[in-house]
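Exercise 7. Given the encoded structure of a 765-residue chain, write a plausible sequence.
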């Protein structure tokens, strides 16, 4: 029975109405088949051979006959207006085919209308001025040097606090405050809550700008066949790129095809189309040849977006027994020049603990720096660091174990909405994580292993995130005449193992070995619609649609087999890719029925149903850290991280452990080493490369112990799964910061926890 339902989809802080056809909603929550179990078992990647042999084709690998190359001229000033631009010398250079700029390119609105594809006003050092198209990249680079631009240099502002002052240079005509006002959330009466408190702690915390540094930089290859455009794009949202490019070029959507088979990382920075995609498409149309525009590493770190810096002020009140009475949390977020939504830093404060009186303020500010973009749990990483640091400060003042304080304020229902959780495994994660790191023995371990100059510390932090996924998401499952199956969907595997997980779901539903299942995705023209891969929503959105499609295909296959083989349905089943007569135990190849029915095809259809109403769907986790701090050098060495998370049903334990480790390592970098450095005199990024921007390497990775609380969520979808992409990075910095404070007996309230900050704190002590 199918029906049409209206639902709302959230994307970058906004909600959009969607109408979706729901098929097969009567499917019960997943129940593992004990006789034939694939879901929940560790499975190596079905495309692993292609990845390790170099056969996998990334966007960077696309080479088309006659392909041209594009390179972008970028503003050398943080704020300027182009008075004139002369490209004649560049155009005369042999091998140059075109130069695009604001005078000859279409006036295409960009960044929610805050700028244009090529704007005459430039708002950060790195903003796009022109794009040269030539026979090779070396010619492009030479041509860029020949473009003559006369700039009117304008006053600029880099500091978000200064940007809010009267008379500050305006980044945009509408002002420097995003949407003209702070985003304020309140429940209860904040002053009453503090009046009821026996103990109050306060603090100001600062987090830095972090750069994504995806191994595959942003880029596109575009080619035209008549009036139809094909784009290969390194993206987390193939349909989003299609829609944006179609709108920009005023094309019907069926004339734009976007492809992406493999991608070398995105972490949120590739959620939407980049200017380079439209530039490549325009240039390909002008020249009649394919065009490749791919950012280099320095461009990537100027223009591809970042996790913004924040200044967070918190005030927390509690009773003597530890019961929270009030939390005030104000966050000033440096958005840079452009954004599509705010920072979301105070989200964990609103939702993590039981507290009757809360007020949060998110003040999101435009400055003349590189643009904000989503970065793996945007806002929640920064906000959790500050909130969990204050919870530890409160525990110390109350002379309570910090884990005990968290348990005393444990939320059994969602504090922000009053709705029940579909599942919540945070209490189990607390207890299991504490056991794995010997939390109760930490005082003895510190005394045993600390020396006069090297101090051991333990810390922890909690995690909350969404991860529910939702409609619209569609899938097809095709049974081939040789008895193999193909899953067809329009999602994208961004390196998380989506292909493998979908193959597991389809294989177990069909009762096929996974070796007989192929997954086709990453193509808007061949696949049916699926949402972007962000917000930890891919598997929770697409997986249920695949299950419905596979079940539909299985039922069709059984019906046809029953008629063709002249056997009752109740005496027939599929077992490991073959028909099995349950009465005689005779096995029959599936291809047998196709041999009897010429040109016959089975296609199962599936769609993802809506999430439950008035229920909160969240993921939870806890991380514990053990550190050693050298008081002579200021160096922090993380010795161990224990991470225990709950994200519904575990489809592939091997893939989840990889996701957890990857997120923890990124969190390690955020806590200790990663920081964009800007010359405040000129507004220029000084370390936009992998030599000076310090991401963790294999030598920096500590012992990491990960476990999942495997708690299938029967209400969220027919698989019981929730997302796990963002959760592992959220509490890492907070846990490490609390461990450092435990080691030193003094808190450092600014990230990253670099040696100079450690030594400065020790000197002031």
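Solution.
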């Amino acid at each position: 029975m199918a029906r049409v339902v209206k639902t709302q989809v959230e994307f970058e802080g906004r909600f959009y109405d969607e109408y979706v056809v729901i098929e097969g909603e009567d499917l019960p929550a997943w129940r593992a088949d004990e006789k034939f179990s694939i879901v929940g078992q560790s499975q190596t990647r079905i495309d692993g051979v292609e990845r390790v042999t170099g056969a996998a084709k990334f966007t960077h690998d696309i080479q088309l006959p006659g392909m041209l190359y594009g390179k972008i001229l970028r503003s050398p000033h943080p704020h300027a207006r182009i008075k004139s631009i002369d490209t004649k010398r560049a155009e005369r250079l042999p091998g140059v085919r075109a130069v695009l700029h604001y005078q000859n390119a279409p006036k295409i609105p960009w960044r929610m209308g805050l700028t244009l594809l090529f704007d005459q006003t430039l708002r950060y050092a790195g903003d796009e001025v022109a794009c040269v198209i030539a026979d090779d990249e070396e010619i492009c680079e030479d041509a860029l040097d020949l473009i003559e631009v006369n700039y009117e240099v304008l006053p600029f502002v880099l500091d978000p606090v200064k940007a809010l002052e009267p008379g500050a240079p305006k980044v945009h005509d509408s002002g420097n405050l995003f949407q003209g006002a702070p985003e304020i959330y309140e429940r209860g009466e904040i002053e009453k809550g503090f009046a009821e408190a026996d103990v109050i702690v306060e603090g100001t915390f600062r987090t830095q700008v972090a750069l994504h540094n995806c191994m595959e930089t942003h880029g596109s290859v575009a080619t035209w066949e008549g009036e139809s455009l094909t784009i290969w794009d390194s993206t987390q949202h193939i349909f989003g790129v299609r829609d944006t490019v179609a709108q920009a070029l005023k094309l019907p959507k069926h004339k734009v095809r976007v492809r992406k088979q493999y991608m070398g990382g995105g972490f949120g920075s590739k959620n939407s189309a980049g200017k380079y995609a439209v530039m490549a498409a325009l240039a390909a149309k002008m020249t009649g040849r394919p065009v490749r525009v791919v950012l280099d590493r320095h461009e990537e770190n100027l223009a591809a977006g970042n996790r913004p810096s924040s200044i967070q002020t918190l005030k927390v009140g509690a009773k003597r027994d530890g019961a929270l009475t009030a939390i005030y949390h104000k966050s000033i977020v440096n958005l840079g020049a452009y954004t599509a939504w705010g920072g979301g830093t105070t989200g964990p404060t609103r939702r993590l603990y039981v507290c009757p009186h809360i007020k949060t303020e998110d003040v999101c500010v435009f400055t003349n720096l590189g643009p904000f973009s989503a970065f793996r749990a945007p806002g929640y990483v920064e906000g959790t660091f500050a909130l969990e640091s204050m919870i530890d400060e409160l525990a110390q003042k109350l002379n309570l174990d910090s884990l005990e304080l968290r348990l005393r304020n444990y939320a059994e229902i969602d504090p922000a909405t009053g709705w029940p959780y579909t599942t919540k495994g945070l209490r189990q994660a607390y207890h299991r994580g504490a056991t794995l790191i010997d939390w109760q023995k930490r005082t003895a371990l510190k005394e045993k292993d600390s020396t006069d100059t090297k101090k051991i510390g333990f810390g922890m932090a909690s995690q909350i995130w969404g991860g529910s996924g939702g409609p619209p998401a569609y899938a097809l499952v095709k049974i081939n005449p040789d008895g193999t199956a193909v899953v067809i969907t329009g999602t994208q595997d961004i390196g998380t193992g989506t292909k493998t997980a979908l193959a597991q779901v389809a294989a177990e539903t069909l009762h096929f070995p996974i070796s007989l299942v192929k997954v086709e995705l990453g193509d808007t023209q061949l696949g049916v619609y699926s949402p972007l891969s962000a917000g930890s929503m891919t598997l929770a959105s697409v997986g249920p649609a695949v299950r419905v499609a596979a079940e539909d295909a299985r039922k069709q296959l059984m019906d046809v087999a029953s008629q063709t083989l002249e056997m009752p349905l109740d005496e027939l089943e599929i077992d490991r890719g073959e028909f099995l007569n349950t009465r005689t135990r005779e096995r029959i190849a599936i291809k047998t029925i196709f041999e009897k029915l010429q040109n016959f095809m089975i296609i199962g259809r599936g769609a993802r149903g809506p999430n439950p109403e008035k229920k909160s769907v969240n993921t939870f986790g806890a991380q514990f850290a053990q550190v050693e701090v050298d008081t002579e050098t200021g160096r922090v060495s993380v010795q161990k991280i224990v991470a225990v998370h709950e994200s519904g049903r575990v489809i592939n334990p091997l893939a989840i452990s990889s996701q957890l480790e990857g997120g923890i390592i990124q969190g390690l970098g955020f806590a200790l080493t990663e920081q964009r450095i800007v010359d405040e005199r000129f507004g220029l990024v000084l370390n936009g490369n992998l030599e000076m921007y310090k991401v963790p390497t294999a030598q920096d990775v500590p012992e990491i112990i990960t476990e999942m609380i495997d708690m299938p969520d029967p209400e969220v979808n027919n698989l019981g799964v929730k997302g796990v992409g963002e959760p592992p990075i959220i509490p890492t910095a907070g846990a490490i910061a609390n461990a450092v404070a435990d080691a030193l007996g003094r808190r450092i309230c600014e990230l990253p926890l670099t040696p100079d900050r450690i030594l400065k704190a020790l000197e002031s002590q």
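Remark. The first strand starts at residue 3 and ends at 11. Students should compare their own answers with the one above.
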